[in-house]
Amino acid sequence: MSQGTASIEESEPVLAEAMDAFERRLVQALNEAGMLLMVSLGHRSGLLASMANGAPVDSESLAERTSLNERYVREWLGAMTAAGVVIMDPQRATYRLPPAHAALITDSGGTNLGVYAQFLPMLGQVEDDILHCFRHGGGVPYERYPRFQAIMAEDSGQTVLAALFEHILPLVPGLPTRLETGIRVLDVGCGRGKALIMMAERYPRSRFTGYDLSEEAISWARTQAQQKGLKNIEFEMRDASNFDETAIPRCFELITTFDAIHDQAHPLAVLRGIRHSLTDDGVYLAQDIRAHSHHHENINHPLGAFLYAMSIMHCMTVSLAQGGEGLGTMWGREKAFEYFRKAGFSDIQVHELAHDIQNDYFVCRVMEMPS
C-alpha cells in the first residue's frame, strides 16, 4: 500500500466524523428554523402574548381568547410543544408558556426576541427576486418589503428607544442640556420617526426634522406626531442619494442616523450631506451594525450569518435596486471610519452599549485645525 493510499484511508474516519457533525448541525438548524417561524406567527397573532402569564390553557380556550381558528391554534401548539417552547400536560390537554420563555419572546421581559423572528418569513418572500439578482444583477426595491418598516420600528423600540435618553444621547457630553435649551435636530432615514417623536416630546424647545424614502413610514410618523399635538417636529419624504448636493449648509446642531447608512444607495454622498448640514459646533450621532469589514474577522460574530443573510436579502439589494453602491449590512467598523473621514469628520469616537450586542454608536465631529 502506497503512502498516498494510506493517507486517504486514514482521512476517511475524520471526513466521516466531520460529515456527521455537520449533518447534525443542519438537521438542528432546520428544526430551529421551524421554531422561529412559529415564534413569528405567535408574535404576530397574539398567541404568545396571550400565554405570557404562564397559566395552562387548552387549544379551544386559547383560540377563543385570541379570536383565531382553533385548528390552526392546535397545530401551532403542537409545533411549539415539539420545539420545547411550550410545555404540555397530556393528561389535561393543556399548554403553558414557562416564565423563562415568556420573558424572551413576549413583552413581559426586557427584550422580546420574537420581534426578530419576523425577519425570516419576511425575507423568504423575496427569495425568487434575490435568485434573479444572483443570475442577472440588479436589486430588489423597497416596495417588495411591505412589512419592513413595521418590523424595524419594533426592532428600534428595543435597541434605540429604550436606551435613547439614558444611554445613547449622553454619549455626546452636554447634549441633553443643549436639547433642553433648544437646538435643531435632523434624523436621516428616520423610518416611522419614533426616536424623533420621543425627543420632540421630551425637548419642546428643540426642533426636529425627519427624512425618509418610505412614503408609508413618513405618513405613519406624521399621523403620530399630529395625534400627540407636537408642533416642533416635521417629516419629509426625501431621497438622500444626492444629499451632498441638496443639503442646506449649517442647518442643524445635531444629526442622527439609526441603522440607516449601510443600505443607502450612495452612503458617502449622504455622509457628506450630513457633514455639510452641521453647524460648526454640531455633532453627528450614528448607530450602525457592529462588525468588521473583512469576512474572516466576523467568524465569531454572534449574529454574523444572520446579518450577512439580512444584507443579501434586504440591505445590500435595496441599495443596488437604486443603482447604488450596495454597501451591505456588514460594511464594518473599518469601512465606517474610512467613510466618516472621507465625508470630512476628523474626530470620530465609537461606543458600545452593554444592552446592544448588534450595534456600534459613532460620535463624529469636525475639529478645527490649530492655526
Automatic annotation (TrEMBL):
**Gene Ontology BP terms:** methylation
Taxonomically, the superkingdom here is: Bacteria
**Keywords on this record?**
Methyltransferase, Transferase
- Report the residue ranges that make up the S-adenosylmethionine-dependent methyltransferase Rv2258c-like winged HTH domain in this protein: 34-106
Q: Locate the Methyltransferase domain: which residues?
A: 180-297
UniProt cross-references to Pfam families, sorted A to Z: Methyltransf_31, WHD_Rv2258c
Question: CDD domains given for it?
Answer: AdoMet_MTases
GO MF annotation: an example:
methyltransferase activity
InterPro entries per the record?
Methyltranfer_dom, SAM-binding_MTase, SAM-dependent_MTases_sf, WH_DNA-bd_sf, WHD_Rv2258c
This chain belongs to the protein called 2-polyprenyl-3-methyl-5-hydroxy-6-metoxy-1, 4-benzoquinol methylase
Which species is this UniProt entry from? Natronocella acetinitrilica
